[in-house]
Amino acid sequence: MASKNMMKNTIALILAINLVFFGFTVAQPPPPPPAPVCPRDIQACVNVLRASVILNAQTVSRCCTLVAGLDASVASVCLCNAVRISLLNILTITLRLNRVLEICRITPPAGFTCA
Questions:
Q1: What's the Rg (C-alpha) of the chain?
Q2: What are 53-109's pLDDT values in tens digits?
């Protein structure tokens, strides 16, 4: 009789310990998604933008494929950095960036400015 009670107590203790450990493992939140970053090949886009006088779908296609999978806000920032690196004149930067975004069919977020 004593061994039956001891067996029940042991099983109850093991179940209680398992419930506590499973409760701790399930309660942890999932890790956050990785932050989106600009592609490393953005330098190729910089070279195209620097060399091209006229921007059209053929000259900008390399840039568009680089930022194709990114969110519109991240793609806008990546292309802004590429245009800003390749040019020094502020007015030209804004006009060329808007043209590149238009060709790539990327709608920048409201109020976005390339600074």
A1: 28
A2: 677 778 788 788 888 888 888 888 888 877 776 555 555 566 677 888 888 888 888
- Taking the model in full, what pTM does it have? 0.58
Q: Distance between CA 42 and CA 32 in Å, rounded?
A: 26
Find out whether 67 and 79 touch, Cβ atoms under 8 Å. yes
Burial class of residue 72, CB neighbours in 10 A (0-12, 13-18, 19+)? middle
For residues 76 and 111, what is the distance between their CA atoms, to the nearest angstrom?
A: 12
Q: Give the Cα separation of 55 and 45 in Å (integer).
A: 12
Q: How far is Cα 37 from Cα 74, in angstroms, rounded to an integer?
A: 7
